[in-house]
Write a sequence for this structure.
């Protein structure tokens, strides 16, 4: 049975539990759990990280911990009762854990590893705390380390700053907000600006001396030297090195490293140096033989110097190598370091051995105790301490020192009978009074223990040696008296014995007879001569002698003058026990000389402060002893001396001696009667203040008043204890009188110099320190009243000088901080005075920093939730006095500009923050009663209105992100809690006072604005918090956004008809609120939009304003990352439900639908923009959004913005053509006018003309970069026209040159034709703008199908590629997945005019083949009915799909949506016809290229001929004959008679072309390919016989006619002239998977096509550039065994050659008749009829004078439709269309056709114009049928694989395209009878028909009529003229001409209209 737990409430999981049992709770090791129930070894509860999921788990898996339970029962809260630092550590480490892993994922390796180390450190420290064995101090230290590391980690990870008090986290509810602010600010400052340490220390470690030839021991001496004052500032660090240059005692680290301590900040400057002197110990000369002398001397070796400035960067200098220098002459040794510093190079040089000193240096900051803690390892190993010379900057009481520093300076010695100077060595001893030498009191430096004697170094042959060696003598005080120092001088011989001969000595006593020590300074000592054997042990023999030349005795004067030898030393005493000052000794011994007391007291001020503080207690005892002796006589003097000593302790150097004086007063002071004299003298001084002219001494007295009062109070207490409290009244009266005098002096106004006000300021600054002393004797209320009266007496006149005002405020501040103010009783008395002064200063906006500090202290004392009556009354007083002025102050200081200097800015932020904290504290303390009183206190509504506006404005300021540092979330949450509480109170006042007739828009607007920005604050967006942080916030404050949202809704409902004032102004702010991902908030706020729509509908009958505002704001808000799919659905559902019953439901639904659709697009756009690289998805999404703004919303400004966003995307992706088209959209909105435009986006303020010019130039540049030069030319012409109209010939010239350069680029530069791919996006997972739509995409250069497919799959990594080309079904559309269907498609150009014109270079045609394409198609082969295994072409049909786009490619995007698709089926016969037409066209092109020498290599023609002839001989077209020419087929398909005839014509035409091709081939074939040519000729005759064709010679005239442009030109009378452009176009297309099979000469049989018809998904193709490098295929058995540029076309041709029966006589007869018709007899292509030159010219030019009938039995009207332009005619196409009817760029200009053109756009070969030029033909001959010209790149062949019989050679059902490659428009079926008329008239009408009524190609299953063109009578043919062709039209002409010619395509769907022109300033 499950029992609720009593004590087992909280635990930590110690082993992971999977929770596989029923109701099991899955737990991970380390999780914390709250336990609810227990049962038989199981617990039931939940993990604290996910409290919603409850379950059971084994009790053995949990370690229980102590916890306390709040709110027992269902909603109980469990809080662990562990140390708060432990709790914080645990939760912080959990949060860090997840973030730490993210650092690894984000590749932030450095922080990852640092955080890892810190986490390990924290865990180690946590273990130490948990074990619980630490001492109190150590625990404190560990907690300090933990919190420091936690703060560091939080800062690095961007987490919140944690407020702490004594290392424990603080609950902001338990302290006042001002205290919280201070804690936060203190931690923030600590983090931001580390406190500058006042004390610094230099760590020095000696590594080694590197030298090539040492061999002797060395002494290394370090010291710090001040080059400015030329003196050492530290003691010496002394180190001995062995012969190898390494430390002599490696086992003792303290001998190798030292810490130079107590350097002040003033000593960290550039002119402080580290000096290193090196002394060698050995022979006199460095080069002497080893056995020359056994005695060793100290001799100079070298010196090194380093500036301390090099260490100020804070880096450790490890292994620093210092150069060692030697002086040129030894006599300079004493100042070598100065010479090196001054760089006097002539006086020193590098040591001969090139020595280097290796040291390690580091500068440490902080007091010595801190250094000991932080660098404990250094101290634990051992380090010597090197002090500063003398006392440190701060002298600590209790410091015991007695150090005498002696510097051996120099000597002056005589030669002593020697011919050379002496080698002098000085030996020093300390001798005590008994005559014994003191042992171990001579210290050479800190690294070496003290020695008993000292030997100086020896300078060679120098009678005036200078040593400058510093020694420290730490002699105890008791040994000092009577001791002296003796110096012995010896000459060191360099002879073999190496003797040291004594020749003199000096001595100096350490203490004088009067008890003073040897004075500091330089002393010249007498050198007493003596012999080597002189016994100096007996000190009595020489102590009576004079020691110094400065103090010679009179009787020895003469004797001493004779000596010339002297010895100089400098002494310096650093002692806390001995003094060198005689005045000090006289004062201390005042009883021995009573007559000198007055003089001694006067001289006290002249004594050095350090001497006084050394003997502080003795001095004070002396002073009070003198006062007791004779207070009348000495009272004033003693008082002045006491004041001097008290003020001396104010000095920072002696500041630490204040506790010594405090201790003295408490424990040692015994002057029970002193208080009377002290009060009396003090009052005398105060009374004299107003009259005294010189105030300096009085100010000194006032400065010392704190300690004077301490002495007075202690003296009175001693007197009371001694007398039982006598004279109490008298004492009180004295104090009262003293304070009366003070009040009088304070109330005086300063007149004149202001000395009085300075005295007042001095008094006020030290007066608060007196309170605590007065409290020792008086009641709290008494003291409070005294203080109140004193402070109240201050003059309150504003013009009193500012210095005094500031001091006054400081006095108030100290009063508030004093002990007196903490007592509630005294506080209530003092508060009015304090508030009065604060109010006065705040009103003047002066001393704000001090005011803020005082206010903070006031609120710190008023604890939160204190319901004591006194506190409530205090709050009353503060609210009445300060609330208003506080609000004004915050408004004032936040509206000021921030100071520029960083220090001032910090102060500014501190002041603002403190005032804000004070305001929040006050508001949090206010209860309902306070709010009510406050609101009632306003007399008028205007006052209330002003107050509310003011407080709302202040709240808005408090909410600003910059109000607090970003990591102060705790502070922000507290502030928000206060704000929302206050707003709830004030909203009632708003409802009661400002509604209905009293409605005030401004105050309501301010309220709503505040509420909105409150909800939008970053710190309230709980979704961004970690789960633990979110849980804490919700537990403490709840979700404040929802509370405020409900309040907004409630207030909105109260507005009634006043809501109209806020529509549409509040739509944007409310929309922003609803976009916050908080479901409750959204549910509350979204209905307000319905309300707004309703009120707007009532007012104006529609809600256009609501719609416009919603749309505008949605774009900006969603682009900022707000909103999500859930919001879109919620918005839609809530509002639709709300408007169900409204009368305006329909328009409402429309609005909601529009907004929802916009949201879909904006969400897609935002998601796409998150991607790193620019891809199709980004561009497509932008295009979708741009079009939505234009077509559905008509928002011009948004439209233009997105145009530029799209433009930037294109530039980034290097889609320059698309970028140009995009910018063109904006260009089209502008006109060439002088209308001024405002500054917009990156455009400056300029005229419309200037902006349009700028855009034109940018567009031309992008067209140029995108190699779309034809489009650039149009724009060049346009802008040139403008320049011309303004006579701007300079720019006109530039533009014409630019235009010319574009023409050059067209002719000279190569352009690649892009592939086009159809992409279907199916499934619901695609973005809205792609979902279940199909697009055609323009591929990148060189991009084939596989690459494109891979790119798309990379863009949509979750998509599945479909492996078939069939239309998907509904299940795919509705699937929750992404399906991609991709295959290649063929572009169908709109206009054929350029492509069919002869003589146009291929690099011009290439542009028209792949630009301005609206229509694409692909073919899919299939079998219908039974498949004939013998001849599969009987049943092989082709399904042709045509795709029509919404916009032409290229355009503003690389892909456009398919607007319409048409599917037709081509019968096997139509398929065969198309295959043959394509092959014939290909042959013609190759022959033409060969004739005009465009081909450098004849191989392509050879291979093509070989392929066709070989296939025909070996069974090619015979398959077609078998399939379609048999009687059975003709009878069963009577409707196909015309088509069969057409197929027959094409076969015969092919034979003619082949014959002509062989003739051309023979002319150009190289010698080594002659055999192949012969074989081809032989096979050709076999082919002709198989087709039943007789010799052509019978019907061919003898005279050859040259074809225009080298192409055969034949008149045909029996073949139909009309060929579908679709049927004849062969585009050298590249398959998406590989290059087109341009040169694939397949030897496979045609029958293989059928078997592969369905299975081929991807086509294979090869590069067209391989054409010229390929050799003919050895086997070419297929009819058209070459490639096709449309690799996905399948068509049929028979695979085996069978003899075809000859045509029936009937057919032959009809054909012969037609051939013999005199009007239409053809001229042979190979042997044409001779004509006159003029006739020949006419023959060449008139392509449409007579349109031949292919069947004489057909009537003329039946032949009137669709003449085909001849590719072999000189006639040109019509002018190209430049601009679409909307003014858009459709195609660039093309040279117009010659004016004599009479052809209706399609040209057939024409008969000779003169009947005389003809002769009757004897045999029938099919004319050579021309077809529209196609594009070929130079030398490129486009052969169709259709007849190759191999699907694998380039046919793909995924990438099918048309077999016909030339047509840009389908053949039209003219359903009206066209009356024959003039050629031009016919052309215009028929072109109109062709353009406007597009129908499927002639092979389609649709019914077609009137196929034959009407022949034009010869009489109407226009004679040719010799005029040159017309110039290209101007762009405007082209545009208008285009508009006349009709529309671009069939059935144009509804196109987006261009934006209506606005008079906007964009």
């Amino acid at each position: 049975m499950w029992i609720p737990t009593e004590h087992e409430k909280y635990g930590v999981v110690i082993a992971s539990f999977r929770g596989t049992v029923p109701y099991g709770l899955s737990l991970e090791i380390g999780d914390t759990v709250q336990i609810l129930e227990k049962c038989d070894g199981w617990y039931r509860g939940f993990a604290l990280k996910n409290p919603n999921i409850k379950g059971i788990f084994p009790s053995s898996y949990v370690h229980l911990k102590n916890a306390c339970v709040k709110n027992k029962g269902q909603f109980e809260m469990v809080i662990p009762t562990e140390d708060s630092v432990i709790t914080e550590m645990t939760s912080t480490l959990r949060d860090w854990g997840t973030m730490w892993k993210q650092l690894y994922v984000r590749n932030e390796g450095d922080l990852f590893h640092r955080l890892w180390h810190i986490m390990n450190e924290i865990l180690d420290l946590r273990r130490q705390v948990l074990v619980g064995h630490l001492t109190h101090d150590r625990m404190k230290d560990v907690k300090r380390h933990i919190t420091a590391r936690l703060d560091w980690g939080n800062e690095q990870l961007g987490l919140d700053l944690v407020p702490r008090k004594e290392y424990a986290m603080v609950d902001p509810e338990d302290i006042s907000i001002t205290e919280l602010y201070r804690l936060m600010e203190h931690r923030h400052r600590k983090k931001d600006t580390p406190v500058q340490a006042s004390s610094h220390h230099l760590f020095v470690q000696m590594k080694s001396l590197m030298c090539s030839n040492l061999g002797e021991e060395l002494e290394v001496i370090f010291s710090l030297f001040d080059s400015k004052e030329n003196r050492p500032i530290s003691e010496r660090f002394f180190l001995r090195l062995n012969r190898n240059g390494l430390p002599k005692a490696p086992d003792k680290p303290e001998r190798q490293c030292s810490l130079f301590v107590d350097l002040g900040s003033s000593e960290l400057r550039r002119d402080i140096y580290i000096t290193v002197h090196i002394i060698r110990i050995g022979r006199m000369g460095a080069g002497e033989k080893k056995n020359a002398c056994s005695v060793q001397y100290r001799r100079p070796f070298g010196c090194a110097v380093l500036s301390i400035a090099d260490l100020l960067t804070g880096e450790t200098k490890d292994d620093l190598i210092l150069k060692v220098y030697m002086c040129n002459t030894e006599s300079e040794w004493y100042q070598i370091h100065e010479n090196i510093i001054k760089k006097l190079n002539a006086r020193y040089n590098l040591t001969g051995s090139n020595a280097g000193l290796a040291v390690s240096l580091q500068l440490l900051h902080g007091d010595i105790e801190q250094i000991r803690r932080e660098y404990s390892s250094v101290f634990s190993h051992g380090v010597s301490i090197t002090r500063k010379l003398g006392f440190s900057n701060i002298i600590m009481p209790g410091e015991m020192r007695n150090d005498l520093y002696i510097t051996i300076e120099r000597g002056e010695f005589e030669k002593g009978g020697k011919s050379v100077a002496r080698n002098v060595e000085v030996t020093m001893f300390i001798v005590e009074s008994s005559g014994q030498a003191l042992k171990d009191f001579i210290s050479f430096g800190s690294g070496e223990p003290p020695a008993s004697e000292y030997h100086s170094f020896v300078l060679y042959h120098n009678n005036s040696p200078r040593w400058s060696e510093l020694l420290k003598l730490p002699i105890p005080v008791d040994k000092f008296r009577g001791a002296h120092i003796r110096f012995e001088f010896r000459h060191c011989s360099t002879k073999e014995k190496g003797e040291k001969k004594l020749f003199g000595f000096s001595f100096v006593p350490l203490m004088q007879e009067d008890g003073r020590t040897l004075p500091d300074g330089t002393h010249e000592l007498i050198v007493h001569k003596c012999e080597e054997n002189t016994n100096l042990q007996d000190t009595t023999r020489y102590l009576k002698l004079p020691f110094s030349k400065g103090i010679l005795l009179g009787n020895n004067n003469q004797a001493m003058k004779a000596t010339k030898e002297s010895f100089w030393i400098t002494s310096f005493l650093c002692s806390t026990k001995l003094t060198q000052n005689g005045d000090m000794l006289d004062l201390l011994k005042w009883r021995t000389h009573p007559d000198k007391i007055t003089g001694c007291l006067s001289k006290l001020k002249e004594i050095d402060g350090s001497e006084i503080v050394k003997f502080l207690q003795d001095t004070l005892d002396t002073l009070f002893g003198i006062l007791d002796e004779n207070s009348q006589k000495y009272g004033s003097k003693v008082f002045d001396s006491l004041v001097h000593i008290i003020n001396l302790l104010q000095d920072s150097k002696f500041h630490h001696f204040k506790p010594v004086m405090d201790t003295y007063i408490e424990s040692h002071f015994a002057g029970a009667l002193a208080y009377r004299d002290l009060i009396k003298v003090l009052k005398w001084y105060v009374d004299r203040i107003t009259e005294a002219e010189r105030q300096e001494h009085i100010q000194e007295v006032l400065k010392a008043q704190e300690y004077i009062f301490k002495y007075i109070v202690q003296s009175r207490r001693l007197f009371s204890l001694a007398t039982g409290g006598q004279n109490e009244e008298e004492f009180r009266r004295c104090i009262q009188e003293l304070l009366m005098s003070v009040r009088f002096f304070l109330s005086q106004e300063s007149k004149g110099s202001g000395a009085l006000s300075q005295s007042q300021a001095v008094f006020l600054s030290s007066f608060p320190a007196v309170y605590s002393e007065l409290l020792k004797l008086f009641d709290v209320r008494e003291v409070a009243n005294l203080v109140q009266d004193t402070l109240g007496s201050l003059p309150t006149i504003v013009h009193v000088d500012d210095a005094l005002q500031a001091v006054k405020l400081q006095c108030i501040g100290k009063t508030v901080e004093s002990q007196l103010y903490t007592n509630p009783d005294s506080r209530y008395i003092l508060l009015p005075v304090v508030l009065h002064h604060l109010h006065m200063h705040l009103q003047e906006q002066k001393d704000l920093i001090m005011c803020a500090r005082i206010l903070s202290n006031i609120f710190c004392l008023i604890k939160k939730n204190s319901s004591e009556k006194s506190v409530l009354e205090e709050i009353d007083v503060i609210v009445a006095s300060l609330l208003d002025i506080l609000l004004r102050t915050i408004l004032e200081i936040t509206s000021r500009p921030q100071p520029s200097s960083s220090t001032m800015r910090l102060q500014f932020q501190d002041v603002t923050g403190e005032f804000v904290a004070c305001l929040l504290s006050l508001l949090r303390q206010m209860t309902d009663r306070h709010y009510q009183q406050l609101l009632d206190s306003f007399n008028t509504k205007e006052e209330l209105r002003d107050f509310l506006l003011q407080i709302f404005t202040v709240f808005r300021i408090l909410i600003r992100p910059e109000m607090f540092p970003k990591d102060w979330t705790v502070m922000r949450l507290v502030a928000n809690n206060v704000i929302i509480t206050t707003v709830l109170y004030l909203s009632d006042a708003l409802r009661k006072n400002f509604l209905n007739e009293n409605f005030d828009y401004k105050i309501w607007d301010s309220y709503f604005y505040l509420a909105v920005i409150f909800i939008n604050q970053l710190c309230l967006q709980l979704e961004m918090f970690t789960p633990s942080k979110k849980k804490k916030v919700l537990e403490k404050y709840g979700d404040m956004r929802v509370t405020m949202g409900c309040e907004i809704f409630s207030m909105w409902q109260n507005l009634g008809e006043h809501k109209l004032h806020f529509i549409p102004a509040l739509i944007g702010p409310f929309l922003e609120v609803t976009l916050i991902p908080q479901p409750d908030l959204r549910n509350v706020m979204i209905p307000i939009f319905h309300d707004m729509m309703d009120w707007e509908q009532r007012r104006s009958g529609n809600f256009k304003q609501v719609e416009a505002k919603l749309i505008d704001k949605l774009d900006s808000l969603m682009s900022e990352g707000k909103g999500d799919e859930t919001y879109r659905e919620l918005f839609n559902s809530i509002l639709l439900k709300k408007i169900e019953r409204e009368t305006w439901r329909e328009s409402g639904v429309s609005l909601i639908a529009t907004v929802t659709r916009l949201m879909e697009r904006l969400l897609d756009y935002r998601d796409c923009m998150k991607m790193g690289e620019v891809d199709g998805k980004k561009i497509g999404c932008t295009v979708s959004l741009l079009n939505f703004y234009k077509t559905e919303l008509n928002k011009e400004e948004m439209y233009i913005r997105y145009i530029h966003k799209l433009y930037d995307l294109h530039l980034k992706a290097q889609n320059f053509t698309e970028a140009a088209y995009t910018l063109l959209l904006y260009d089209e909105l502008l006109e060439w006018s002088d209308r001024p435009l405002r500054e917009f986006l990156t455009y400056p303020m300029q005229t419309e003309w200037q902006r349009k010019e700028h855009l034109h130039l940018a567009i031309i540049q992008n067209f140029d970069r995108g190699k779309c030069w034809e489009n650039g030319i149009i724009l060049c012409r346009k802008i040139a026209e403008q320049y011309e109209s303004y006579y701007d010939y300079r720019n006109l010239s530039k533009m014409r040159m630019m235009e010319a350069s574009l023409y050059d680029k067209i002719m000279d530069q190569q352009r690649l034709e892009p592939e086009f791919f159809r992409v279907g996006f199916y499934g619901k997972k695609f973005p809205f703008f792609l979902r279940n739509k199909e697009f055609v995409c323009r591929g990148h250069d060189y991009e084939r199908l596989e690459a494109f497919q891979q790119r798309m799959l990379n863009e949509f990594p979750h998509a599945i590629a479909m492996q078939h080309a069939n239309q998907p079904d509904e299940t795919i559309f509705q699937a929750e997945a992404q399906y991609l269907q991709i295959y290649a498609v063929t572009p169908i150009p709109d206009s054929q005019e350029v492509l069919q014109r002869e003589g146009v270079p291929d690099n011009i045609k290439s542009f028209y083949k792949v630009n301005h394409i609206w229509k694409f198609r692909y073919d899919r082969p299939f079998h219908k009915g039974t498949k004939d295994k013998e001849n599969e072409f009987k049943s092989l049909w082709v399904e042709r799909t045509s795709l029509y786009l919404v916009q032409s490619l290229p355009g503003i995007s690389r892909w456009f949506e398919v607007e319409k698709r048409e599917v037709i089926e081509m019968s096997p016969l139509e398929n065969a016809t198309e295959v043959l037409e394509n092959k014939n066209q290909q042959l013609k092109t190759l022959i033409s290229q060969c004739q005009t020498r465009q081909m450098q290599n004849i191989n392509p023609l050879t291979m093509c001929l070989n392929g066709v002839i070989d296939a025909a001989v070996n069974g090619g077209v015979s398959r077609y004959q078998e399939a379609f020419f048999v009687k059975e087929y003709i009878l069963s398909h009577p409707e196909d008679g015309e088509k069969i005839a057409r197929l027959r014509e094409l076969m015969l035409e092919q034979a003619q072309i082949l014959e002509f091709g062989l003739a051309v081939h023979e002319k150009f074939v190289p010698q080594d390919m002659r055999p192949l040519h012969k074989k081809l000729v032989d096979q050709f005759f076999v082919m002709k016989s198989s087709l039943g064709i007789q010799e052509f010679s019978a019907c061919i005239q003898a005279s050859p006619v040259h074809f225009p442009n080298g192409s055969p030109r034949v008149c045909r009378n029996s073949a139909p002239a009309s060929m579908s452009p679709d049927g004849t176009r062969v585009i050298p297309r590249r398959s998406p998977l590989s290059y087109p099979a341009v040169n694939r000469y397949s030897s496979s049989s045609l029958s293989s096509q059928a078997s592969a018809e369905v299975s081929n998904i991807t086509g294979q193709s090869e590069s067209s550039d391989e054409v010229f490098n390929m050799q003919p295929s050895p086997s070419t058995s297929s009819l058209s065994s070459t490639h096709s540029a449309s690799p996905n076309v399948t068509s049929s041709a028979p695979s085996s050659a069978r003899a075809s029966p000859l045509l029936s006589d009937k057919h032959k007869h009809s054909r012969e008749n037609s051939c013999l018709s005199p009007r239409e007899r053809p001229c042979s292509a190979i042997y044409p009829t001779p004509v006159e030159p003029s006739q020949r010219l006419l023959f060449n030019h008139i392509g449409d004078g007579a349109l031949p009938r292919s069947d004489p039995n057909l009537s003329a009207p039946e032949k009137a439709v669709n003449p085909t332009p001849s590719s072999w005619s000189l006639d040109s196409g019509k002018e190209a269309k430049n601009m679409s009817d909307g003014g858009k760029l459709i195609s660039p200009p093309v040279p117009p056709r010659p004016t004599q053109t009479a052809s209706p756009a399609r040209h057939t070969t024409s008969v000779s114009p003169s009947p005389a030029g003809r002769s009757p033909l004897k045999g029938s001959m099919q004319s050579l049928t021309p077809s529209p010209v196609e594009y070929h790149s130079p030398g490129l062949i486009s052969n169709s694989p259709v007849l190759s019989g191999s699907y694998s050679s380039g046919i793909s059902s995924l990438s099918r395209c048309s077999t016909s490659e030339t047509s840009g428009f389908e053949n039209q079926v003219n359903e009206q009878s066209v009356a024959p008329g003039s050629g031009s008239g016919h052309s215009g009408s028929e072109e109109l028909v062709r353009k406007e009524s597009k129908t499927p190609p002639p092979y389609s299953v649709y019914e077609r009529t009137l196929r034959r063109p009407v022949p034009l009578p010869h009489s109407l043919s226009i004679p040719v003229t010799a005029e040159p062709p017309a110039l290209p039209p101007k762009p405007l002409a082209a545009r208008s001409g285009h508009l006349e010619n009709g529309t671009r395509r069939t059935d144009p769907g509804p196109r987006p209209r261009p934006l209506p022109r606005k008079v906007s300033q964009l």
Remarks:
- The first strand starts at residue 3 and ends at 4.
